[in-house]
Amino acid sequence: MAISRRDVLLGSAGALGAASFSFPAPAIAQSEPIRIGCLAAITGPSSAPTVGFNRGVNFAVDAINGAGGVKGRKIELVMRDTQGDPTKAVNATQELISQAKVHAIWGPLNSGEALATTPIMARAKMPDLHPCVVETLIDPVKYPNAFRIAPSNNQWDDAVRNYCLKIFKVKKVAVIGDTTGYGVTAVGASVAAFKKDGAEVVYQANVDATQPDMTPDMLRAKNAGAEAIVVWSVSTGMEARMFNTRAAMNWDVPFVGHPSMASGELASLVAKPENWKKVYAIGYKSCSYDSAGKLPPKSEDLVARLAKANVALNDTLLWWVAGGIDCIELIAKAVAESGSTDSAGIIKYWNSLSTYPGYFGNYRFSPTEHNGYLTEEIVMSESSTAKNGTFALAPGYT
Amino acid sequence: MLASILASGLAAGAIYALVGVTYNTMFSTSRVMSFTAGQLAMLGGVFGSMFTLKLGLPIAVGFVLTLLCCAVIGIVTEFVAVRPVLKSLDQHLYVLSTLAVALMIQQVTAIKWGTEPQPFPRIAGFGEGVLDEKFWLPVVACAVTIIGLEYLYRRTLVGRAFLAIAEDNFAARALGLPERNLRVASYALAGMVGGIAGFSGGQLLLAFFANGALLNFYGFVPVALGGLGNNRGAIIGGLALGLFQQAANFLVGGIFSSVAVFTLFIVVLLAAPQGLFGASTARRV
Fold first, then answer.
1. Which of B30, B85, B202, B233 could lock B45 by a disulfide, CB 3.0 to 4.6 Å apart?
2. Which of A55-69, B58-72, B230-244 is the least confident region?
């Protein structure tokens, strides 16, 4: 049979027309589980936060799946132990993306790993939520897929400075950190910000965390007239030595700064329990109790639900558990609202959140701001008042 | 301020000196600079805290068990990192093998003990301020250890055998001395000296896995200053280092004090490469 030019034109038009109708998506895509990859340091020296985060993650997954899932789709966790090692985190990220084919990733849970994995996830356009504090991990242009649901270093710094200058109303501060990269960077940024706000930084130092005697630096800070000592270090040994030295000097200057000053280990490292008083560490409104011993109502409700589900809080921090719950709920909500597990839809939904009420705090994202945690949610806590992963508000808050 | 410099400077210096003696004890019978010396001192603090605080044993029992454990680690070092490389000492493979064992000790301690410093108990319970026992126990431990070692080396047969091996390995073997067993014994002894350093300095340094690297470093300085293999030099070098470091801490501050210490260290080595108390040796060519 001869094929005429008319037949060719008709055939082409028909093919084009057929192509313009989308094929129905396979039913399996709408019923398959929502796979969430978790990059968690389950073992190794930096596993303590993961233990807390995982309790929240599992609690949220069980609750959502128990209620029928997200529009009938169950959530499936694909957990990978990174052991706090960036190399293992990179391997796990690639495996989650290319082999496990997860729809979104929670983690990594520490900045060292996140610095290595964030560009990989960006290349794969993988929706990612993480709680890591390093500023450069969030960049909506370079990493449009990455969203932070915890404070950044700068937000911590702002909160500490605001407490010293506006609530504690001191004018002269000493800023002391350790000699790690973190300590040096944090002290530099903190000193610059204090000076910018008109405060007088009478003493600044980076001290080797293993220095056995802190008297020299404490003496210099005292002689310089410091009214508060701002501490940027994760070394509880160094912090305990500073608290003990303050007591030996009969000096009642307050310490304000890094959350590690509220770490439980300090109870056994200080020479006397009273040496740990007047120490105010970074905390969060949602996880701080007032003078009556009450948490905010939403947190009280969460703690009751966690207790009912036998989720222990006595050996972890409430904010880790709450952050884990928020991350799963943010992913579930994004799938529910966008109608699919398509990464573009999930990212678009997160970018549209002008206010999202989580358990750890309220979040706000936009296409140009992926630091979702609000600075006003950060408060100072009385370091030595830990109770089921929560702390008493520091003086000055109503 | 002067009292504080003296108290904490002598305390830190005594710990550095004991780590220096640990280096020397291992070096004397093997000609190997074992970089596990600082880790042995770190383990002295960790084992001490574990036996006395975690397991609740009496201080004396905890001390003896700590020394035994450190001695075992010393012996393991000899078998694993020293013996296999002795045949090719000139290739300095011991640097790699002992560093590898040191890193393994540190990592295992971090995983099993934790990465946070743990408290160390009060031992005798005396003193406050600059008279606190935490400053003076290392000094006493250092004095007792050096007297004990002097007695061992000068008054006992085993000690003289150690000296003979250190002086001339081949001649000592020709005389029938059990060189291999003496070397193992010297590593056990070094483990115990390191354990004493860590136990006596536990209240000052706390039981912390990262102390090992620090003590490896600062313990090496008195060895280099005092002359390799010279215990008296290590003691004087260690105490001088501690005092100078603490004075620098007071006068110029944390980061700069390390710079000051190592500037002095380099200047001394430029002036006396064999160490202040070391003798230059002739080498047959």
1. B202
2. B230-244
* Rounded Cα–Cα distance for residues A194 and A186 (Å): 12
* Token pair recorded at residue A209: 């965390």
Mean pLDDT of A300-316: 92
Q: Where is B126: in which H helix or E strand?
A: none
Interface contacts A/B by beta carbons within 8 Å: 74
Virtual torsion, Cα A156, A159, A160, A164, nearest 10 deg: 170
Q: In this complex, is the C-beta atom of B210 within 8 Å of any C-beta atom belonging to chain A?
A: yes
C-alpha distances in angstroms, A56 versus A49, A328, B191? 11, 9, 46
Chain A residue nearest residue B130, CA to CA? A248
Residue B140 touches partner A, C-beta closer than 8 Å: no
- B259 near A CB under 8 A: no
List of residues 6+ apart from B143 with CB closer than 8 A: none
Q: How many residues does the structure list for chain B?
A: 285
DSSP of A357-384: E-SS-EE--BTTB-B-B-GGGEEEEETT
pTM, rounded to two decimals: 0.80
Specify which residues B20 forms β-bridges with.
none
Q: Is residue B266 packed enough to be buried (19+ CB in 10 Å), middle (13-18) or exposed (0-12)?
A: exposed
Nearest chain B CA: its distance from A210 CA (Å): 7
Does residue B94 or residue A27 have the better pLDDT?
A: B94
Pick from B1, B117, B214: CB nearest A236 = B117
Nearest to B255 among A45, A206, A240 (CB): A206
CA B3 centroid distance within chain: 26
Are A295 and A289 within 8 A, CB to CB?
yes
Closest by CA position to A234, among listed A260, A195, A262: A260
ipTM, two decimals: 0.79
